[in-house]
Amino acid sequence: MKTENTFVKWVVFAFVLVVPLACKQIGSLSSNSNSNGGATATATPFERPLQLTETRTLKYANLQFTLTRAVISNRVANDQPQDNANLALADLTFSVVNTLKDGVGIKSAMWQLKLGDGSVYKRPYEDNFAPRDTKERMISFRVPPSAEWKGAQLTLDEQDKEPATLALDGPARPQQYPAKLASGDETTTKEPVMTYTILGANVDVDGAGQRAALGKRYLNLSVRVTNKEAGGGGGAFLPEFFRLLIDGVPSTPENMSDNNTIEGQSSQDVTLSFVIPESATKVELEVG
User: Fold this and answer.
1) Per-residue pLDDT at 13 exceeds 70
2) CA separation for the pair 41, 56 (Å, rounded)
3) Quick one: DSSP state of residue 174?
4) Domain boundary residue among 140, 167, 194?
5) Which in 40, 62, 88, 90 has the greatest CB count within 10 A?
């Protein structure tokens, strides 16, 4: 009997030791009383910020999205729809600049966050920006609590248009576009007597606040036109003086600056955007 009593005491002592250890292992949980007087387990708040050691900017439709903050946390508002698989949020905050003197709108677009494990999370996106405007935008994705920034990247695209992708981790990738072309060429026509000087030229996936269609590019030109004819007489209408030969096929400008009439003995800077195939091998600008 004496041996049996000793065994009982040891069992009780062992149980007392195990319980505190188990509580320590699940220290990420805390108890809240529910309406029935019981307790429910809730996750301890956590935040996983992305360390921004260099500037990360995504260009789309002449808008510049510069990442200012990114954090993964489980601070999901109670009024948000519950998702038992994705109980955390990945919040990305951008400063967005419209570089144009015209408004820019994005319709039926999609943000896609791809994590290092290959999982993809999507968010629809529509927005409008006034000329030369700067706004702050936060893009949020529901993700698992285990989500990490390592190997993550963010993509913005519209249907049937060229996507733009921003690496969120690792070295920032150099941007392929815009690709600058030679400028400074000048020519003069005889009738009417007008001089055309190319001030700037580039090939880009953006043109006049639009994103290029898949497989297409914009040839963006800035041209100074000088009308050397005598003053008076109503001036010259510019669009009809510009044609682009793409591998021998003529094309007219997709977009052109608004003020297109130039009076005699005056000059005007004109911006034009032509749509060209990505596979184009030779383009020539005809004027006059």
Assistant:
1) no
2) 38
3) P
4) 167
5) 90
